[in-house]
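Ticket opened by: R.M.
Priority: normal
Category: complex prediction / small molecule

The reporter submitted a protein together with calcium ion and asked that the result be attached to this ticket for the collaborator who will pick it up next week. Submitted input follows.
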Amino acid sequence: MSGHRLIVVEDDPELRALVTRGLEEEGFTVTAVGDGASAITAAHEAVDALVVDVGLPDADGRDVCQALRAQGIGAPVLFLTARDAVTDRLAGFSAGGDDYLTKPFHFDELVARLRALLRRAGADPVTTVGPLRLDPTTHAASAGDLEVALTPTEYRVLAALAARPGVVLRRRDLVRAAWPEGAIVHDNTLDQYVARLRRKLRALELELQISTTHGVGYRLG
Ligand code: CA
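Result attached by the on-call engineer:
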């Protein structure tokens, strides 16, 4: 289950709906838009990668990519292009794009390319849920001006919950996400981590909290 957040920018409504539905079935969270301006607006929310049609009604997809880079948005871009000229490919890459796919394409190919891009980008992006921000480099959790330090394990537990806000994660999935493979983690150990994370979230003055679903696991919401 990937949980990565994608923006699909495609002006052809049928293709947009098809791609969106397929990617959602693959476990991605998808924001679908039909023009460049909407794509740039959408990209100011957390995004892990973008699928950008080169031929958009209001802009060239490569200009959209350049605008994103200029605004400090570094998420990888997969271009969809009807053209296959070498010059077009080069222009795409120099605009900060990371890969391209020529239409018509096989959906499986799109998914494979996206997963490869996400892997290369480091599948550990900054995670945000509402005002909560989790920094994978510093392991800090912050909201506005408030910040708390998390241990690496606390960070991984919270990041796993934050990757799927509102969804109950099973205890064993949290353990798998946060501890090394094969580690023996008792139920009360996970409970202690969750208790500490609850205190830290309260210190950030968030309404967001970790709730318990008895016999199942935990959810952030
Ligand atoms: Ca188009």
